[in-house]
From TrEMBL:
InterPro entries: AAA+_ATPase, ABC_transporter-like_ATP-bd, ABC_transporter-like_CS, P-loop_NTPase. One of its GO terms (molecular function) is ATP hydrolysis activity. This is ATP-binding cassette domain-containing protein. Keywords: ATP-binding, Nucleotide-binding, Transport. Residues 21-259 form the ABC transporter domain. SUPFAM superfamilies: P-loop containing nucleoside triphosphate hydrolases. It comes from Flavobacterium hiemivividum. It holds the Pfam family ABC_tran.
Amino acid sequence: MEQETITILPQAKIEEKGPVIEITGLVKSFGENNHVLKGVNLSVNKGEDLVILGRSGSGKSITIKCIVGLVLPDEGEIKVFGENVLNLPTSKLNEVRIRIGFLFQNSALYDSMTVKQNLAFTLQRHASHLTATEVENEINAVLESVGLAEAIDKMPSELSGGMRKRIALARTLILKPEIILYDEPTTGLDTITSKEISELILDIKKNNNTTSIIITHDMACARLTADRIMILKDGVIHAEGSYLELEKSEDEWVRSFFI
């Protein structure tokens, strides 16, 4: 199970102008022969849902993991809220991280904890100033927002794949992030549940005014959630546009995603 490795501190929200994420010349290799990212450039505007598509192993997930420091790039610049996060001291980096939520592909719930304990643990680590009553209220509210108030005392093993994903989303939302990075939010789910998760992503944007990057290979999710789509190929952004624009692209390789 992938564990949280980020320590973060409370930070007041600040209104931003222009892009809230800017990536320039991002390069990442694993060993001498596995050159995954070869100069990725992208930006995400406040309130936008950007979908990144690409074949397996194209570096989609690596790109967003670089944003929060789960993976360190070899070269490039990553600005979040105008700050180059690669050059920030730990204390300043943590102030940026508190404003970012990350939904892991496998949900990364703690299997030995109930749903309530999973959510409480997150608040205890990152919002220790809250009273017990405030923690209880936050947990109840966020479970209501993902439609799973009745699951509060269940163990992760008792939840379906879709329910686990919703609880993972609740854990992300409980810290009220301004940016959410979704790593394959519908992977492994059936068509109906995938649509429900995609619709929940839209609800989160509407209700919380979040900015998001959504990594997916699920074209139904991309069609429903994307304000804009970028497609990675050979370590760089190969194409960019709306779903309808890319679906009608003259580039045969780009159109192959939409068949």
